[in-house]
Amino acid sequence: MKKVMIIGAVGAGKSTLIKALFGESQPASKTQSLIYRDWVIDTPGEYSENPLYYRSLMATSHEAAAVLLVQDATRGRNYFPPGFEQGFAVPALGAVTKIDHPQADIDHAIELLRQALPEGEIFLTSAASNEGITQLKDRLMQIVRS
After folding, report:
1. How many folded domains does the chain comprise?
2. What is the pLDDT of residues 46-61, one digit of tens each?
3. Which domain does 68 fall in, by range?
4. Phi, psi angles (nearest 5°) of residue 36
5. How many CA atoms lie within 13 A of 28 on its CB side?
């Protein structure tokens, strides 16, 4: 089965988002290495924060049908370089996490994500309330089944 590789900074909510996509409620733990699970590849946040790991992300993307760039709505800075999605040979989508957090700035998060993902779909999500999770999962499943 094809997979979707999930990329984002440390603490951006990647593992929590994955648990929500699988309908699990237990707390997520820190991802220490690439984790292959069903139709998802979970990547450590350090891989997107350190350019030394970009090559590993690019190579791993060849095993994926798409990449999902994750931006935390509570963060004021971008952890992806401009045009980051262009380094992948597969389509890229975006997800903004923690949209219902009191410090969330959704518009700013979208703006930051657009620097790395100038085009492509962006989904607004909250693992806490499950907002946007079904829509994101439906779209990702459509990609992995195509």
Report:
1. 1
2. 888 888 888 889 999 9
3. 4-145
4. -95, 120
5. 22
